[in-house]
TrEMBL record:
<dbReference type="Pfam" id="PF00072">
    <property type="entry name" value="Response_reg"/>
</dbReference>
<protein>
    <submittedName>
        <fullName>Response regulator</fullName>
    </submittedName>
</protein>
<feature type="domain" description="Response regulatory">
    <location>
        <begin position="3"/>
        <end position="119"/>
    </location>
</feature>
<keyword id="KW-0597">Phosphoprotein</keyword>
<dbReference type="InterPro" id="IPR050595">
    <property type="entry name" value="Bact_response_regulator"/>
</dbReference>
<keyword id="KW-0902">Two-component regulatory system</keyword>
<feature type="modified residue" description="4-aspartylphosphate">
    <location>
        <position position="52"/>
    </location>
</feature>
<dbReference type="InterPro" id="IPR001789">
    <property type="entry name" value="Sig_transdc_resp-reg_receiver"/>
</dbReference>
<dbReference type="GO" id="GO:0000160">
    <property type="term" value="P:phosphorelay signal transduction system"/>
</dbReference>
<dbReference type="InterPro" id="IPR011006">
    <property type="entry name" value="CheY-like_superfamily"/>
</dbReference>
Length: 120
């Protein structure tokens, strides 16, 4: 069974993503900050990470860069889910190694298409 780590400080957005992913049979671990996410990643590598940009402490962009520059985590697909959805934000996410970028509120069909894309 696949495991997704959701790094999202908004309870509403975290619950929405959790619901969508669990409907697809994916186990979900939810945390509110990059610092909490790092602890989860160190304990057990997830199969994918869904990452907000605006987080307390370290930003999602910084956390994405850290994951993608670490040999142990560089191959984990990272999907950024953010209200920051300008072309510049999407380009910056891509430059930092994000595998996909979804705008909030996340659409379930778009999420499923993105999941297939990053897991294939």
């Amino acid at each position: 069974m696949l495991t997704a780590l959701i790094v999202e400080d908004s309870l509403t957005d975290r619950e929405r993503l959790t619901h969508y992913l669990q409907q697809s049979g994916i186990t979900v671990i939810g945390v509110q900050s990059s610092e909490e996410a790092l602890l989860k990643v160190q304990a057990k590598l997830p199969d994918m990470v869904f990452l907000d940009v605006v987080l307390p402490g370290q930003s999602g962009f910084e956390f994405c860069r850290d994951l993608k520059t670490n040999k142990q985590t560089q191959n984990i697909p990272v999907v950024i889910c953010s209200t920051k959805s300008t072309e510049a934000d999407k380009l910056w996410g891509s430059m930092l190694g994000a595998d996909a970028y979804l705008s909030k509120p996340v659409d379930q069909h778009q999420l499923m298409a993105t999941l297939q894309q990053v897991m294939s």
